[in-house]
Amino acid sequence: MNTEPYQSCIEACDACAAACDRCASACLGEPDIAHIAKCIRLNADCASLCRFTSAALARESHLAPEFCALCAQICDECADECSRHPSEQCGTCSDTCRICAEVCRGIWSQ
Amino acid sequence: MNTEPYQSCIEACDACAAACDRCASACLGEPDIAHIAKCIRLNADCASLCRFTSAALARESHLAPEFCALCAQICDECADECSRHPSEQCGTCSDTCRICAEVCRGIWSQ
Amino acid sequence: MNTEPYQSCIEACDACAAACDRCASACLGEPDIAHIAKCIRLNADCASLCRFTSAALARESHLAPEFCALCAQICDECADECSRHPSEQCGTCSDTCRICAEVCRGIWSQ
Amino acid sequence: MNTEPYQSCIEACDACAAACDRCASACLGEPDIAHIAKCIRLNADCASLCRFTSAALARESHLAPEFCALCAQICDECADECSRHPSEQCGTCSDTCRICAEVCRGIWSQ
């Protein structure tokens, strides 16, 4: 078990970034793209902010808690949007975003 | 002249990211690293947040103004630290960070 | 005029990344997404590789020439795909990718 | 257990990126920075290429195998350098880079 600082939040951010990229990629194959474009846009914001936050946590940046606060907000927004779509990828992404939001808030409120 | 949305802020963020990466790289060659380690750490935060923000602006993310607000804050912090060091790279980086902070605040306050 | 090492290649990579992100964002609003999905996928590869390469050039990484070689290849591929679509964003993106590919090859062949 | 495509390689890249960022951060606190500057530089290349590759794998980019080939090369180079230093962070980073290199080569040779 990895006991490095912030390890569980790094893992949550990495998992969320992968789920968002997978969701966007699968959504691009959906027939009704107009319906799903907002989801793909939020996936891009969320994936890249999660990777940015993960890196800042690994560097133990003194700003990591602030980055986590913003990350939690975007994760929640992405989860809300994905939860409105019945596809499997959106369901997985929504769940993974909720977990990441919660773990990030845990860093912020420490 | 490129008249795309957010173009001047994208350019300011890209210039700031490059200045921060160059500053960190040059600072790694300084003899008294203990003196300069904080600068290198802030360079890493600032460079990666500027690249993240630049990408969000190019995507015209609806969250771009919020990302710019955070980016302005980190740019100011990096500029403050760099302005305390007499090296050429720190001077250039500090100036470039100040410009980026100002342009980002312009997006935020729109 | 900025006379730092690799400056023109950094600028070409940054411009290409922004053009790719803008192209993907505009393509998401197109009615026939099935037609344009491959373009959006290549935009994502090209934008993120250009930002990665730009950062490596700013750090004066000893591996920068190898990163530029791969970047040139992806830029060409993205330009080829975009050139098959008549939209304004694809035209701009294709042109910007061609320039970036050429500048990156210049670093590689030095 | 996550059975998504490329999942084990995504996890190896994410773990390697975090190990490299942690190694660089800890090395910045070392007294003899001249000795360790090359390590910090390679950490930056390796961490950012691993995150780029992880994202490409999650998108199932058709270029993922080529990105993995380059990633394996940089991971090996970073592992070689870290293995020359006795610090705990360099040992962990070297081991994590070796695993990532091997998993990336597995994607490339498929």
UniProtKB/TrEMBL annotation, chains A, B, C, D:
<dbReference type="Pfam" id="PF03860">
    <property type="entry name" value="Csp"/>
</dbReference>
<protein>
    <submittedName>
        <fullName>Four-helix bundle copper-binding protein</fullName>
    </submittedName>
</protein>
<dbReference type="InterPro" id="IPR005560">
    <property type="entry name" value="Csp_YhjQ"/>
</dbReference>
<dbReference type="InterPro" id="IPR044543">
    <property type="entry name" value="YHJQ-like"/>
</dbReference>
